[in-house]
Amino acid sequence: MRCISLLLLAATVASCTAVPPSPEHLAARQARIQELTAGKVAQAPISCLPHQFANDMVTIDESTVAFKDGNRVYVAHMDGPCSNLGGAGNYALLTRTTGTPGLCRGDIAHVIDTSANVTVGACTFMDFIPYVPARS
Questions:
Q1: Are the CB atoms for 14 and 7 separated by under 8 Å?
Q2: How far is residue 104 from each of residues 63, 74, 99, 117, 122, measured CA to CA in Å?
Q3: How would you class 5 by CB atoms within 10 Å of its CB: exposed for 0-12, middle for 13-18, buried for 19 or more?
Q4: What is the distance, to the nearest Å, from the Cα of residue 21 to the centroid of all Cα atoms in its chain?
Q5: Which of 44, 128, 134, 135 is paired with 89 by a 20 to 30 Å CA distance?
Q6: Could you give the CA distance from residue 64 to residue 92 in angstroms, rounded to a whole number?
Q7: CA 74/CA 2 separation, integer angstroms
Q8: How far apart are CA 80 and CA 89, in angstroms?
Q9: What are 81-126's pLDDT values in tens digits?
Q10: Per the confidence metrics, is the pTM higher than 0.85?
Q11: What is the dihedral of CA 44, 48, 53, 54, to 10 degrees?
């Protein structure tokens, strides 16, 4: 019985270890960010994204999302990957804000399987990097 408990514990710990992304994955992420930010320049990171800018979200990968607002793009990296975000299936990113002016650094996002209505992952937002059109 003790061996089974130790095996279950080892399997649980092993499932929590992060595997570094492959070079192909990193290249695909970078290409998608470049596509979204073409002709734009990065500004200083901001810690909160006002609600009106958080409507049009684009999933880049499990660790990165972008929010489009007209000619601006806000790129947000997560503090760790959001399991299943961007994967095949009916997944949505659900955030809850409490008393803040918008989506902020430290807010927790849950990945929801909309077909089963269950949480399948979670992560925390880091800063938002605004990209604005370059001036000619």
A1: no
A2: 16, 12, 11, 25, 15
A3: exposed
A4: 14
A5: 128
A6: 14
A7: 50
A8: 21
A9: 888 787 667 888 888 766 777 899 999 999 998 888 898 888 999 9
A10: no
A11: 120
Is the distance from CB of 91 to CB of 111 less than 8 angstroms?
A: yes
Please, are residues 111 and 81 in contact by the beta-carbon 8 Å criterion? no
Q: Virtual CA dihedral for 95, 55, 25, 43, nearest 10 degrees?
A: -100
What does the pLDDT read at residue 21? Answer: 61
Select the more confidently predicted residue: 77 or 136: 77
- The number of domains in the chain is 1
Give the angle 14-92-65 at the CA atoms, nearest 5°.
80
For the chain, what is the mean pLDDT? 80
28 within domain boundaries: no
Range of the domain at 52: 42-136
**What share of the chain has pLDDT > 90, as a percent?**
29
Are the C-beta atoms of residues 76 and 59 closer than 8 Å to each other?
Answer: no
Query: What H or E segment, with its residue span, contains residue 76?
Result: strand 72-78
Instruction: Tell me how far apart the alpha carbons of residues 132 and 39 are, in angstroms, rounded to a whole number.
Output: 8
